[in-house]
Specification:
Blueprint lengths: L13 H13 L6 H19 L4 H12 L2 H8 L2 H16 L7 H16 L24 E3 L10 E3 L4 E2 L8 H13 L9 H17 L1 H8 L4 E5 L10 E2 L7 E5 L6 H23 L15 E2 L12 E2 L1 H32 L9 H17 L7 H17 L10 H21 L5 H21 L9 H5 L1 H12 L6 H4 L4 H22 L4
Parallel strand pairs: 3-4, 4-6
Antiparallel strand pairs: 1-2, 5-6, 7-8
Helix pairs in contact: 1-9, 1-11, 2-3, 2-4, 2-5, 2-10, 3-6, 5-6, 5-7, 8-9, 8-10, 9-10, 10-11, 11-12, 11-13, 12-13, 14-17, 14-19, 15-17, 15-19
Length: about 525
């Protein structure tokens, strides 16, 4: 089933896109990776000094870092394992938690980091034993320098220190600690890339560099390790992943790396999460108690609802997604603008990117929700970043939807799940036809009711379509998508009730598809 609406937004002016990229990569507080990583280093040196009251290895490392040039501090403190050792030791010594890597192991890791620093080895200890072929960039990381700024911070971004995980270094202390952290947080294995997979990773990187050279260098400077994962265990169903507790590393599904458009988007997506995590370590991004049980939550309307309410996001996850979608809007606009030129080398985009319209719509909704729902859970820096990103979004969104509109987000979920239903029914004997017919009639009835509230009607169709669930869903989409473009209709008094009824129908349908096993 092909989408019944366009995933592309109205193209913005080329000069505007370039200006937005410059802003996202160089804004002194929110974009400048040199500044963000320097503030991160300050935070981690402070934590090491605090740990030094109990662990002499931590104090020794902190003093060495204090005397090291900023570039060396950034390299060492970009190491996922060293960061984990600091965080785990802090929780054990200052909160009394039995958490993460044991204190003796943390102390040994601090000592090894000091030896690494004194030896003048590049990067961090985790990647120190990886060979040159494991570097993400095959020609030495490119450098992009912003000459418009003053010299307060080093504005040269490089990701020559970004490596691809290879399992043959598993015997080193840092690798053993990394695998222990992975087991605690994911409980699933990683894969050593084949030579072909390394080629594919670099191909996706080159495409991303072509589309957004400055932003690529900025975002990837926050990533020291990229690892591929197989479709096993908790990795099942994941396209890519990163998290605050495994800071500095990103994870990609090895089965999906074959398409360069997909890979370019997901490389940027996960690297931007790392950039925001680094910012969070050095700034008041969130209120201290944002994660409390009764903290405000935002419903991500484009995600399937489940019994654990995973589609409700706290302030951190909402802000992280908002941050990414603003950037992805720019990426997709550039990709759509340059597709004809790049397709001979990389193939057509097809369904392999989010699409600029979808990215803009999700960013707009999340920005509105941050203001209306989770504002009290944001710190001063988080509120200022939200305002700034909304200004950036205004420059990209040339056809802004009315405030409060959500029908397009609901239909995005409904349409994507309709394609999954089509695939599901083709792959195995379908369930009883009367059960599917009942679901079709239920969704058509709720759609008719919502349209009636707006003085609209569902166009007539052959009786067979009333009982065929996939065809019924296609009718629903064809009837409802045009409503999302009718601004005058959204001003009608019945629109909120109609939108709420459609939300009920979509989420109820999603749960039924999940129970059927059609969502994978």
């Amino acid at each position: 089933m092909q989408p019944v609406h366009s995933l592309g937004a109205a193209p913005a002016d080329t000069g505007m896109l370039g200006a937005v990229e410059t802003a996202l990569a160089s804004h002194r507080a929110f974009g400048d990776s040199g500044y963000i990583r320097d503030q991160l280093a300050v935070a981690y040196r402070r934590r090491l000094h605090k740990l030094g009251r109990s662990l002499p290895e931590a104090e020794s490392l902190a003093r060495q870092l204090d005397a090291a040039p900023p570039a060396r501090q950034r390299q060492l403190l970009g190491d996922t394992v060293l960061r984990c050792a600091v965080q785990h030791a802090m929780r054990q010594l200052h909160l009394g938690d039995d958490y993460g890597l044991p204190l003796p192991q943390c102390a040994a890791l601090f000592q090894a980091a000091g030896e690494h620093l004194r030896a003048g080895l590049p990067g961090g200890p985790l990647v120190a034993h990886l060979p040159p072929l494991a570097r993400l960039h095959d020609e030495g990381g490119p450098q992009i320098t912003d000459i418009d700024h003053d010299d307060t911070y080093d504005d040269t971004y490089t990701y020559d220190d970004t490596y691809i995980w290879h399992a043959w270094q598993e015997g080193t202390p840092y690798a053993r600690a990394f695998l222990a952290v992975m087991e605690d947080n994911y409980g699933a294995p990683l894969a050593t890339p084949t030579p072909q997979e390394r080629v594919l990773l670099r191909r996706g990187l080159h495409l991303l560099e072509t589309l957004l050279p400055r932003l690529t260098a900025s975002a990837l400077s926050h990533v020291q390790l990229i690892a591929l994962f197989p479709k096993l265990g908790t990795w099942r169903g994941k396209a890519s992943s990163s998290q605050f507790r495994v800071n500095g590393s990103v994870f990609l599904n090895q089965e999906l790396t074959g398409n360069p458009w997909w890979l370019a988007e997901h490389l940027l997506h996960e690297s931007l999460h790392q950039k925001l995590y680094d910012f969070r370590h050095g700034h008041s991004l969130l209120a201290p108690d944002y994660a409390r049980d009764d903290g405000a939550r935002v419903c991500s309307l484009w995600n399937a609802p489940d019994d654990d309410n995973n589609h409700y996001w706290d302030a951190h996850r909402t802000l992280a997604a908002f941050h990414v979608y603003v950037h992805l809007a720019l990426l997709c606009l550039q990709a759509e603008r340059q597709e004809a030129t790049l397709a001979p080398r990389y193939g057509p985009i097809g369904q392999h990117m989010s699409g600029s319209r979808r990215a803009i719509d999700r960013a707009r909704y999340l920005g509105e929700q941050l203001h209306s729902t989770t504002w009290p859970e944001l710190g001063l820096a988080g509120r200022q970043m939200t305002r700034w990103l909304l200004d950036v979004l205004d420059a990209l969104d040339t056809q802004r939807r009315p405030a409060g509109a959500t029908l397009h987000l609901l239909l995005d979920l409904y349409e994507r799940q309709s394609r999954k239903l089509d695939t599901f029914l083709l792959q195995q004997p379908p369930p009883r036809s009367d059960a599917l017919a009942a679901l079709a009639q239920q969704e058509l009835a709720m759609t008719r009711q919502a349209l009636h509230m707006l003085d609209r009607e569902l166009p007539p169709a052959p009786p067979a379509q009333e009982h065929d669930w996939p065809q019924a869903r296609q009718r629903v989409l064809q009837a409802l998508w045009p409503l999302t473009e009718d601004d005058k209709l959204m001003e009608r008094s019945g629109y909120p009730q109609a939108q709420a009824l459609i939300a009920q129908m979509v989420q109820q349908s999603s749960r039924q598809l999940g129970a059927l096993g059609a969502l994978g």
